[in-house]
Design a protein that fits this description.
Elements lengths: L1 H11 L3 H32 L19 H15 L6 H49 L3 H6 L2 H23 L4 H16 L1 H7 L3 H38 L1 H6 L3 H27 L1 H23 L7 H43 L20 E10 L2 E11 L4 E6 L5 H8 L7 E6 L2 E2 L5 H6 L1 E4 L10 H6 L7 H10 L3 H6 L17 H15 L3 E5 L7 H15 L3 E5 L11 E6 L2 E6 L1 H7 L2 H10 L2
Parallel strand pairs: 3-8, 3-9, 6-7, 7-8
Antiparallel strand pairs: 1-2, 1-4, 4-5, 9-10
The structure holds adenosine-5'-triphosphate and magnesium ion.
Length: about 600
């Protein structure tokens, strides 16, 4: 609990001035409760003097008051007895006292609520940004294990729950404990015996708090994971809507969603129950306190018994104590919920990237540098993927990776981009191990066309420009021409300003691929990674794009993956992968002569 509060405080630190103002206003608005009770009794005592014949201080309801107030009190009482004319101002103040205090309390409560909610909103907004930034810096390995819908839910729902709860607590969390303690202290000072009798049942009120706390914690956790599952289901259904429609899966998806929602409501109602039950229970205990008091008064008839001022004081006290107690029970429930929600957030924030940045980064000059894979092994979790990979890509040369599907070709490029680190062995560029270079530096020097084209729901121009943010319009157009994308772009309604839809949904597969190539062209990096870059193009377009790519490869170090061997016949070296191991390396002619895996592949493709 303490650790949790410290974490929240760490986030709210930048806003400590408002936090301070809010807390101070809360403290004073809490104290106002005692002032209010005192004033009501004061006014009551003045209007209905208990023993009118004696103006002695001992009969005053607040015999312990400061002297000036006692004087004022006496003046007020005299004013009432001798007609209004004698002390008009005193009387006016007497009448206006209660609303004035209420007004003051209202202003303080506003300040308290406003400042604290201001701080809470900013804090949670910061937390969202921090979380998102953190997620952006996590490695590829992390994303393999996390569903995007779940992550979205953490950034939006979990922090959102935290915000709602912090805001609900804002006016209560400072004011009510102060009110509780101050009223109790005031009463003990005034009427120690009667107060003790009335509040003897107070500890019982803690019972529901303790009982329901654990239930709430469990349900609160469930609630957050259910809402993550909900957004997961939606993300998948929306992004996969074509398959959902094509396979008539609408009903199944809706049923899944329905089950999740029902489950969600179940946990929600458990929290509602746990939140509502303690309130009436406490009221019941409070009423028991009042009847204990009555019983005491009736049975023991203490001296000056049934003094109406004293009795009024006790009834007021019951309300004044049990109301904040009830609120504090709510706060306690909220805090449990807030903790459940924020634990998930803090867990994510504590996740370390599996490709840590080097403490003392080295400079990387990929231009004119050899890329060397040395004894590299790699596993995805338990699954062995690459074993004993050794090869060198000479500076400025073209190396092709060939092999059956699943043989580990894309994985090789993932390692070069340092999406993952090898389990054993090392990858160096110009003699510098990738683990000693800032990932930013490394990736700045690589242009990549991935196997699955990744495009964003933005204009054509912006999608190409992402290759080198800040590139000029001319450069973007030149890159598009190079990738043979210019013509089809110009056919679109707004040309380069046309929005391509989510993941380029409004483009054909081949068009998407050419945009990805244009992006890589624009990047103008010394290392080029092409993973099936032209696989979606028809033979004619492929030939044209290939010519452009050949042009692009000049002077760059290129690793090219292709199933269609026609595109790599002229490679400086061909590496044949099979089940994560290198089986053959050499130029095309050598490999064909050798009569191994490559020769078989070649014959299969060119037999026709
Ligand atoms: N993120 C991942 N988590 C676990 N296993 C993975 C992951 N990505 C790939 N694999 C597995 O690693 C192996 C190599 O995959 P890789 O993508 O490198 O193959 P590939 O040679 O590029 O195949 P293809 O020609 O079909 O693209 C495969 O068995 C695949 O199932
Ligand atoms: Mg692949």
């Amino acid at each position: 609990m303490i650790a949790f509060l410290l974490k929240v405080w760490g986030l709210a630190r930048p806003y400590r001035v408002r936090l301070f103002v809010g807390v101070v206003a809360g403290i004073f608005s809490g104290l106002m409760m005692t002032v209010l009770i005192a004033t009501i009794m004061f006014v009551y005592g003045a209007i209905f003097p208990t023993s009118p014949d004696s103006a002695g201080q001992a009969q005053l309801p607040m015999q312990n008051l400061p002297v000036f107030l006692q004087h004022w009190f006496l003046a007020a009482r005299q004013a009432l007895e001798s007609g209004v004319k004698a002390h008009p101002w005193t009387l006016a103040l007497l009448v206006a006292a209660v609303p004035l205090i209420m007004l003051l309390r209202g202003v303080l409560t506003y300040l308290n609520g406003y400042c604290l909610q201001w701080v809470a909103s900013r804090t949670v907004a910061d937390l969202r940004v921090k979380l998102f930034a953190h997620l952006m810096n996590l490695s590829a390995g992390f994303y393999n294990e996390s569903a995007s819908g779940q992550l979205i839910s953490r950034v939006i729902n979990d922090t959102g729950t935290l915000l709602v709860i912090l805001n609900s607590c804002a006016t209560i969390i400072v004011r009510d404990p102060v009110a509780l303690v101050s009223v109790l202290a005031f009463l003990l000072w005034q009427q120690p015996k009667l107060t003790l009798i009335t509040t003897v049942v107070l500890p019982l009120c803690m019972l529901p708090i303790v009982i329901f706390r654990r239930k709430i914690r469990r349900s609160a956790r469930e609630l957050q994971s259910r809402s993550a599952e909900l957004s997961q289901t939606m993300t998948e259904a929306f992004t996969g809507h074509r398959i959902v429609k094509a396979y008539n899966l609408e009903n199944i998806v809706v049923d899944d969603f329905h089950t999740l929602v029902r489950n969600y409501v179940g946990h929600y109602m458990r929290i509602v129950r746990a939140q509502i039950i303690p309130g009436p229970l406490m009221e019941f205990f409070g009423a028991c306190g009042v009847s204990l008091l009555l019983g005491y008064l009736v049975v023991f008839r203490p001296e000056g018994h049934l003094n109406p001022t004293a009795f009024l004081q006790m009834i007021l006290s019951v309300f004044a104590i049990y109301a904040p107690l009830k609120n504090l029970n709510m706060v306690q429930n909220w805090v449990v919920q807030a903790r459940a929600a924020s634990e998930r957030v803090f867990d994510l924030l504590d996740t370390q990237s599996s490709v840590p940045e080097p403490a003392a980064p080295k400079m990387l000059h990929a231009d004119q540098a050899d890329i060397i894979f040395e004894n590299v092994d790699f596993d995805y979790g338990e699954k062995p993927v690459l074993r004993n990979i050794n090869f060198t890509v000479k500076a400025g040369s073209l190396v092709a990776l060939v092999g059956a599907t699943g043989s580990g070709k894309t994985t090789v490029t993932n390692l070069l981009l340092r999406f993952y680190d090898p389990v054993r062995g090392s990858i160096t560029i110009g003699g510098v191990d990738l683990r000693d270079v800032r990932t930013r530096d490394l990736r700045n020097q690589i242009a990549v066309v991935t196997q699955e084209t990744v495009l964003f729901n933005d204009t054509v121009r912006r999608n190409i420009e992402l290759g080198r943010p800040g590139a000029t319009n001319e450069e973007i157009i030149a890159a598009a021409r190079n990738a043979h994308a210019y013509d089809f772009i110009m056919e679109k309604p707004k040309g380069f300003d046309w929005v391509i839809g989510e993941r380029g949904m409004n483009l054909s597969g081949g068009q998407r691929q050419r945009l990805a190539i244009a992006r890589a062209v624009l990047r103008n990096a010394p290392i080029l990674l092409l993973d099936e870059a032209t696989s979606s193009l028809d033979t004619e377009t492929e030939r044209a794009v290939q010519a452009a790519l050949d042009e692009l490869m000049k002077g760059r170090t290129t690793i090219c993956i292709a199933h269609r061997l026609s595109t790599i016949l002229h490679a400086d070296m061909i590496v044949v992968l099979d089940q994560g191991r290198i089986r053959e390396t050499g130029r095309h002619e050598e490999l064909v002569k050798r009569g191994g895996i490559y020769q078989k592949l070649y014959e299969l493709q060119f037999a026709s």
